[in-house]
Automatic annotation (TrEMBL):
Signal peptide: none annotated. This is ABC transporter ATP-binding component. The keyword ATP-binding applies. The lineage of its organism: Bacteria, Pseudomonadati, Planctomycetota, Candidatus Brocadiia, Candidatus Brocadiales. Coiled coil: none annotated. Keywords: ATP-binding, Cell membrane, Membrane, Nucleotide-binding, Translocase. One of its GO terms (molecular function) is ATP binding. GO terms for cellular component: ATP-binding cassette (ABC) transporter complex, substrate-binding subunit-containing.
Amino acid sequence: MSSLDVDLTLLLRKEILRLQEELAITFIYVIHDRDEAFSLATRILVVEYGMIQKTGTVREVSEYLSRLSDDSC
């Protein structure tokens, strides 16, 4: 959704969340935007170079990515 304007992006996010709740199903959503992933997900899988690096809740993955960022400084 990165190429969409802000209003349309927000509208689509709301619609995705509404559908997920209404249908009570799991969505697999491939995204490269961290903020967008955190706003839509309850669980996240991080893949790098074709290998799973981390799975967990938004909070767990956020903490993991923060530690990685701190370690690279």
